[in-house]
Amino acid sequence: MRETTADSTITLADKQLAFTPIAFIQAIVQAYARYGVAPDKALAAAQIPPETLADLKARVTAWQMERISGYAMHELSDESLGWSSRRLPWGSYGMLVRASISAPSLGVALKRWCRHHSLICDDIGLAVSQAQGRASITLTELRPLGTLREFCMVSVLRNIHGVACWLVNSRIGLQGAEFPFGAPGHQDVYPLMFPGPVSFNSQAGDGSARATLWLNASYLALPLRRDEKALQQMLQRALPLTVLQYRRDRLLVQQVRQALQNHPQATHSASELAALLALSPRSLHRQLKEEGTALQPLKDQVRRECATDLLLRTRKPIKQVAEAAGFLNEKSFARAFKTWTGQTPSAFRGVCLPTPSQESTP
To answer: What is the assigned CATH class of domain 252-352?
Structure first.
């Protein structure tokens, strides 16, 4: 059985996987205690036995987490689920999306989101920045969050990452995620929530701690692909909106080309290339197919461009040109180049470049 939308496909099995740590359920129960409301109905609605709360190793399914979160947000009228010093009434995050959806690009939309978030919550600060091809989304703790630090940071960053994916209708791969607390006992679930390298800093003190998501800055230039009608549909199912639903990455072709250009000798196989992109070889081939291309044509295109450029602009030996273009040896390079151009590399260079005597002729 599958739930299918225009931009995602979720298997029932995915929703039944119990990987959400009980620590997040305990945080929601803390919110109930803060407001003086019993959590019994919410736990029952999510089919979570109360005795499970005492088991620090327990996990719940994605469905159970969605269920109790939605129930608690409505019952407590607080979308922050207790980590904010003041309630964020139901609809607060929908309002942030609505204020961002008219932006010309994802970067502008996220900056609007961060600016408007500060108007409804002064416990944390959010900021988007970029430098040298890398972008960051940073959450700064403006008041000590105590035992709710992890829950707040995970919730907010998952939220903004998921909305960013939704706005551009694309999976947004992460280059890394950093959190200002020691690795929790359930650290194994972090790569599922934040696909990519995850690090923890146990030296971060209370107050002014920062959590950061890192991503390719090119994502910020992508145009938004959603409108008000799509927003209305999304808000009806905002809680199960997760990054893992997005199989398509609109920057994948560009990232593959960059990896091939920057690491010609480390991308001979699909497995080597996939590892650089934090994907499995199977996912790499599938996503390229969804983008209407395949790995070998991309590899040929990048290698041909590199080889042609070097043959035209330099007098590097053919062996060095072959290596720079990503070939294992000169023989395989010559064979491929003749297939592309009908000429050997030497013949191509001889036709296109003047001889040394010609260069010196007045």
So the answer is: mainly alpha
